[in-house]
Amino acid sequence: MSTKTEQAPVAPRRPHSFTRHGITVQDDYAWLKDENWQEVLHDPSKLDADIRSYLEAENAYAEGVLGHTAALQKTLVAEMRGRIKEDDSSVPSPDGAYAYFRKYREGGQHELFCRMPRNGGTETIGLDGDELAKGHDYFKFGGSRHSYDHKLVAWSADTKGSEYFAIRIRDWESATDHKDIVEETDGGVVWALDCKSFFYVKLDDNHRPMQVWRHRLGTPQDQDVLVYEEHDTGWFTHVHESTSGRFCVIAGGDHETSEQRLIDLANPDAPPRLIAARQDGVQYSIADRGDELFILTNADDAIDFKIVTAPLASPERSNWRDLIPHRAGVYVLDHDLYAGHLVRLERANALPSIVIRDLTSGEEHAIAFDEAAYSLDAMGSYEFDTTTLRFSYSSMTTPSEVYDYDMVTRERSLRKRQEIPSGHNPANYVTTRIMAKAPDGAEVPISLLHRRDFVQDGKAPLLLYGYGSYGHAIPASFNANRLSLVDRGFVYAIAHIRGGTDKGWGWYLDGKREKKTNSFDDFAACARALIATNYTGEKRIVGHGGSAGGMLMGAVANRAGELFAGIVAEVPFVDVLNTMLDDTLPLTPPEWPEWGNPIESEQDFRTILSYSPYDKVAAKPYPAILAMAGLTDPRVTYWEPAKWIARLRANMTSGGPVLLRTNMGAGHGGASGRFNRLDEVAIVYAFALWAVGLTDRNA
Asked: From CA 148, how far away is CA 191, in angstroms rounded?
């Protein structure tokens, strides 16, 4: 089907402007934001009729333009599904008399939560996700945690895609739920040691996690006890168990500052105890062992973080003592603690390693691998008094492997290797890394995956993925779906741009607030480097990013669109200025440290306005663009991509087409269910193949 015969929807311009700091901004598509957006999150049927009509027209147009790829999409889904071990299961994790694990049944969309006797035996299904999802268009598990006496499991689910999770309590033996229902939570649960109550975080009307409550089993939610309330709307609050299992940790913070409190789970009525008072720019997280805390922090200008110790009885800042000093360029991502060992996950030069410290002798050793680019992660344990560390390893060519590692003997045993039922030979693929030089001289790593028979002549199509915000690094890990592009001749590339922590915390600081445009310049520099080294050619690249990575896509489309054949922006954060000016939106106040506060600061207003993708749409050519949204998304609201596509279509001089596809029954994560999600991946890949001419554009 030709794009020429498709009539693109035209969103009416409804003149609207506002003035702030003496600067007037025109926003003629503001009407696409439903005034009752909070209600829509809870009940999508309440969406304004005009807005619904427009979104459905956009969906029909996108379906029409990409309709000729329907057979290709089905082929892609079949390929990707063929790489999934349908009855896959996790490695059982021991805890007391049992070992807990998750698995799928053949053909099942959702996980089953199971256990068996610790040393093997008959398995019991506690939660059947497929059964629980029946009758719901959308279903997603939140958290699940068995009680310390192993009789109960607290579990949560979201049935609208709006990320409001309801908690229920299930009896392991009878596989039935108690009457308790705790609504509008973030999904997490921490049990008290007596298993008669649990702690959880309640979301407010603006979808912010601000309050910690305690629920006593057998009582209605309106009798729950408020344990802690955060009054700074820029801070989010979450709860988790401490490493030893003795405490509930109340962890609060924004993107720059943090603060933690402890509740003794043996005495759940006791008030939370502060570790160290918040101090602007200082972040910390705690692990506990006996009467001592091990604290990961950036205090004292430790940009790439260090680990200090402090007595549990008096953990304030004045009592912190360095254990693992700060080393510039060696970023300590995380730490975990066991009875006899401290484990830390580090990254240097965009490659991770796990370092194990014997807490008796102080001796250290590292677990590392030899590939040019790989991903490594410690997986944690229910048990504290153990010498077994479980970790996972993968690379862009090597499927995920799970190992148990004896921290004393240093012996590792492979517990699971990801199976690819349709077959996968890592020797048929190559993963490598090159560097791109940014305009200011920064060296930006690019991880690459291609077939071994790839010819480096500048003609290959290439998908370039990027994110570059919040300090999130993009690991060079295995993803079976990508093979559907690579086997069709694509090179798959990850741009490890500033704004992430791929090269340390300083790499993140260099890509935020007034330095945000470094992220965009880095991504464009990666595209140019890939062209210069003949991995691909101009207009042979498809850019891909989601959420804040979708903002990256929007900015790059404005600034360097000529390099790209196509751009895919999933749930893209493209209306940055308007969102940061609306302090009622769920994520706005916590986001000010990341982007700036344009309400208070004229400089921040001008900085954001200078790059905000929606505001910088210009009368110029644009590549083909596919924007994907979720109607009930509380993180990147549906109207951001809707407004962006409307303005693009009204202003661009040539190129395109620009398409908007809104999932009317899902939120930020897209479709629920492991196979339904493949339908959305197939649309992205079919668009990418079409954009570079590998499908018949006029068929």
From this structure: 8
Per-residue CA distances from 663 to 11, 285, 676 (Å): 19, 37, 12
Of the two residues 125 and 37, the one the predictor is more confident about is 125
- The verdict on whether omega for the bond into residue 220 sits within 30 degrees of 0, i.e. cis, is no
pLDDT in tens, 119-172: 989 999 999 999 999 999 889 999 899 999 999 999 999 998 778 899 999 999
Catalytically active residues are 547, 633, 668
Cα distances from 371 to residues 293, 398, 413, 447, in angstroms, run 35, 10, 20, 11
The rounded distance, in Å, linking the Cα atoms of 573 and 616 is 14
Indicate if the alpha-carbon torsion angle 560, 562, 565, 566 is positive or negative. Answer: positive
pTM: 0.86
For 130, the enclosing helix (H) or strand (E) is helix 129-133
Burial pattern 338-361, b for ≥16 Cβ within 10 A else e, equals bebbbbbbbbeebbbebbbbebee
Run of H or E including 485: helix 483-486
For residues 657 and 39, the answer to whether their CB atoms sit within 8 Å is no
pLDDT band at 672 (very low <50, low <70, confident <90, very high): low
Q: List beta partners, residue 261.
A: 250, 274
Token pair 């009940």 is found at 43
> Which tokens is 34 given?
């439903």
pLDDT of residue 348: 86
Contact 517, 543 (CB under 8 A): no
44 pLDDT higher than 90: no
Q: Is the dihedral of CA 343, 340, 326, 366 positive or negative?
A: negative
Which pLDDT belongs to residue 133? 93
Output b/e per residue, 490-505; b: 16+ Cβ within 10 A. Answer: bbbbbbbbbbbbbbbb
